[in-house]
From TrEMBL, chain A:
All residue ranges annotated as the 2Fe-2S ferredoxin-type domain in the record: 4-109
GO-annotated molecular function: 2 iron, 2 sulfur cluster binding; electron transfer activity; metal ion binding
Gene3D superfamilies assigned to the protein according to its UniProt record, in alphabetical order: 3.10.20.30
Family that this chain belongs to: Belongs to the adrenodoxin/putidaredoxin family.
Record lineage: Bacteria, Pseudomonadati, Bacteroidota, Flavobacteriia, Flavobacteriales
Protein name per its UniProtKB record: Ferredoxin, 2Fe-2S
From TrEMBL, chain B:
Molecular function GO terms recorded: ferredoxin-NADP+ reductase activity; flavin adenine dinucleotide binding; NADP binding
EC nos: 1.18.1.2
Pfam families the UniProt entry points to: Pyr_redox_2
Full protein name: Ferredoxin--NADP reductase
Species annotation: Pricia antarctica
Catalyzed chemical reaction(s): 2 reduced [2Fe-2S]-[ferredoxin] + NADP(+) + H(+) = 2 oxidized [2Fe-2S]-[ferredoxin] + NADPH
Note describing how the cofactor binds: Binds 1 FAD per subunit.
Subunit structure comment from the entry: Homodimer.
Family per similarity comment: Belongs to the ferredoxin--NADP reductase type 2 family.
HAMAP family: FENR2 (MF_01685)
Leading EC class: oxidoreductase
Cross-referenced InterPro entries: FAD/NAD-bd_sf (IPR036188), FAD/NAD-binding_dom (IPR023753), Fd--NADP_Rdtase_type_2 (IPR022890), Ferredoxin-NADP_redctase_2 (IPR050097)
Positions of FAD binding: T14, D33, Q41, Y46, A86, F121, D288, T329
Keyword Oxidoreductase among UniProt keywords: yes
Length: 109, 352
């Protein structure tokens, strides 16, 4: 199996059930961009270096995710609308373990 | 009025390299950028990150790339209007354009090249009630004149270099400096962190971590803020302040350029791939700010786009001149400052 299912709620509240590849070295932010679930220029601004928080999302399913790096922690500490389940999409690398993941995109800020 | 041949909006890598290509064609450039320094995202967001896909550089730090570009264009003496955002554009009867910044600086050129990246960097504002009411009335996002803070009570929020550096600087100017950050860890240069630690120990900076400003109050101007201290027992503290400076970094916004009657698609300016001209003849868009079928937002693509843009700009500025592209290995680089770089002549000498 190389594709997993992910449920993404966009910033307008619309739910998208999408297929995401696990064999293309992609992260969650890139999947959101590839399906254009948020307008270009409003997500992934720094390109995925955990330096802008434009890809912040709330993780709603109870998947075990990789620990936050220091960079991600620091960025989330300076972002807005941060909740307990906030993560940066660019730091969530897609693997088969994440099949069924449910996330919601945080508001643009 | 500042006049030039090509007015470049955005002093990131693409805008800087355009100066070089224009210079080879003896065209002068002037750059406008909202940030106080050149380099765009490379300087502002990730100066210490290595880039691996600049041709000829197996690895180069973004900040070093900017330094190199500045060195490369030095002899073409570009002008800079920094810390000002290009606001309006007016087409003149002679076909040239006048671009005015938010501070009123006017620039005139026959060609405008927008190399604006993702837009101009605007401060990220905290989500607080009545924030607007106190902007410029006790709240500022950018410190322009530190003397404004002399002998006043200042509260700074943020956890990066600018929050640390300004806390250190203002601890000598203001009567009281409070630094609030959502966590105990700061992301900044090690010596800044250590300096704040020592100023805290001396009682010169009051540190509240983990904490967050949650409310603002004051009649006409800001008089106090509420800081929620998020230790095991949550505690709300009311702190009297004259100034609150939120330093949560900058985020790029396309901004006024979006109103320049250029065709926009997906937050980017549509161009043709012949010379990267927009729907308005004489206005070009190069680098991350443009879009066309197959567009890739890469620095190396911006360099290519800048090069072709300059050829087209030359034709526009000198419609009657015939021109053939010259290699730098042949023509060298003749600067506007009188300098000349060229290949050393081969030695011709007989061998007995």
């Amino acid at each position: 199996m190389t594709d997993i299912k992910i449920r993404i709620t966009d910033r307008e509240g619309v739910v998208h059930e999408i297929d995401a590849p696990t064999d293309m070295n992609m992260n969650l932010m890139e999947v959101v961009r590839s399906y254009e679930l948020a307008p270009e220029g409003t997500i992934g601004i720094c390109g995925g270096m955990a330096m802008c928080a434009s890809c912040q999302c709330y993780v709603k399913s109870d998947h075990e995710l990789p620990e936050k790096s220091d960079d991600e922690e620091a960025m989330l500490a300076e972002a807005f609308n941060v909740a307990e389940n906030s993560r940066l999409g660019c730091q969530i690398h897609l693997t088969e373990d994440l099949d069924g993941l449910e996330v919601e995109l945080a508001p643009e800020s | 009025m500042i006049t030039t041949d090509i007015l470049i909006i955005g002093a990131g890598p693409t805008g800087l390299f355009a100066v070089f290509e224009a210079g080879l064609l003896q065209l002068k450039c002037h750059l406008i950028d909202a940030l106080p320094q050149a380099g765009g995202q490379c300087s502002e967001i990730y100066p210490k990150k290595p880039i691996y896909d600049i041709p000829g550089f197996p690895e180069v730090l973004a900040g070093d790339l900017v330094d190199n570009l500045m060195e490369q264009i030095k002899s073409f003496s570009p002008g800079f209007t920094l810390g000002e955002r290009a606001q309006t554009i007016e087409k003149q009867e002679n076909g040239s354009f006048i671009v005015t910044t938010n501070k009123g600086t006017k620039h005139q050129a026959p060609v405008v090249a927008i190399a604006g990246g993702l837009g101009s960097f605007e401060p990220r504002k905290p989500l607080l009630e009545n924030l607007k009411k106190y902007e410029d009335n006790g709240i500022a996002y950018i410190i322009k004149d530190p003397e404004v803070y002399r002998d006043t009570k200042v509260l700074i929020a943020g956890g990066g270099d600018s929050a640390l550096d300004w806390s250190i600087f203002l601890s000598d100017v203001a009567s009281e400096v409070t630094l609030v950050h959502r966590r105990k860890e700061f992301r900044g240069a090690l010596d800044s962190v250590e300096k704040v630690q020592s100023l805290k120990n001396q009682g010169k900076i009051r540190l509240i971590t983990p904490g967050e400003v949650t409310a603002l109050e004051g009649d006409k101007k800001l008089e106090a803020v509420t800081v929620r201290k998020n230790t095991t027992a949550v505690e709300d503290m009311r702190i009297q302040v004259d100034h609150f400076i939120p330093l949560f970094g900058l985020s790029p916004k396309l901004g006024p350029i979006a109103d320049w009657e250029l065709e926009i698609e997906k937050n980017a300016i549509k161009v043709n791939t012949f010379d990267y001209q927009t729907n308005v003849p004489g206005i070009y868009a190069i680098g991350d700010v443009n879009t066309y079928p197959g567009k890739l937002k890469l620095i190396l693509c911006g360099f290519h786009e800048a090069t072709l843009m300059c050829q087209s700009a030359y034709q526009r500025i000198h419609p009657d001149k015939k021109y053939v592209m010259k290699y730098t290995t042949v023509g060298g680089v003749i600067g506007f400052d009188g300098s000349k770089k060229e290949a050393p002549k081969a030695v011709v000498k007989a061998i007995d």
